[in-house]
Design a protein that fits this description.
The structure is a single chain. The protein has about 240 residues and is α+β, with helices and mostly antiparallel strands. The chain folds into two domains: about 5-190, Trna Endonuclease, Chain: A, domain 1 (3-Layer(aba) Sandwich); about 195-240, no CATH class. It contains six helices and twelve strands. It has helices spanning about 5-25, 95-105, 125-130, 190-195, 200-225, 240; strands at about 30, 45, 50, 55-60, 65-70, 75, 85-90, 110-115, 120-125, 140, 145-155, 165. The strands form three sheets. It has a six-stranded mixed sheet. A four-stranded antiparallel sheet has the order 6-7-11-10. Strands 2-3 form a two-stranded antiparallel sheet. The longest helix has 26 residues, at about 200-225. It starts with a helix and ends with a helix.
Amino acid sequence: MDSQSLNKDRLGKAGEAVVRKWLVDQGYMILPASLINEGSAPMLRGKLKSIILPDTLAWKNGVQRWVEIKTKTTHTERLFSPDAGCLQHGLPERHWRNYCLIQDETKIPVSIAVLQVDRRMLFIGQLDSLKKSIRQESFRMMDGELHVWLNLLYPNKLSDFEDWYRLGDDYSLPDFIQPLAWRTLTQSPDPLIRQLTLDEFIDYLEQKREKMAEEKKAHCKRQGISNCEACRDRYTCSECLA
C-alpha cells in the first residue's frame, strides 16, 4: 500500500471512530461491522453473491439502521456547468450500488454519514432520500473511476443531505491529508462560494434547514395533513413548489 493510500486508510478509520462516538452520544447502540476481522472487508455472504457490509449497524428506540461513514478532508467545488458553484462530496459508484444492494437484501435502511474534517461538520442522509437527488449529472469521473456526487451547498436549491451537525471540541478529529482531486485545490474567484468562514458556513446550512421546515409546514397546511408522503424527504412535489 502506497503512502497516500495508507494515509487515506488511517483517515477513514479515524473518522469512523469519531462518528461512532457521536452515534453513541446520541443514544444509539452500535455494532462496528467494519472492525470484524475476516482478512478482508466484512461481507454479507450468500451462495451466489457476497456484499460488503456498511461500516456500522446502529439501533435506537427499536429501530435499526446501517450507517456508512465517509471521511473527507474538505469538499470539492464544481467549477463547470451544470453544477457550477456546488460544493460536493463524491463516492465511487460501485460503493453506491453496494449500499443499494445491502438495503434491498436486508430490508434495513442505509444512511450515509460524511465527516468533513476542515469544517468539523457531519452530514447525514438516508439512502432513499439521497436517491431522489441523483440525476444524470450526478455521475462524473474522478481518478479514473465513476463517482456519484452529492451536494452540500447548492445555489438556489436544497442540500441533498437531510441533517448536518457541527462537532464540538470534545471530538478529536483526524489530521488532514492533501486531497488529490484537482477541483478541491482550485480557488473560485467568488469568495461567497469558496472562501466561507466556518460561522458563515454554519449560518448557510441553518438557513437551508429553516427553509425546508417552512416549505414543509406551508405545504402540509395547504394539504390539511401532518406529513405529506409525496414530498416528505425532498419537498419537491408540484404542490410544495406552488
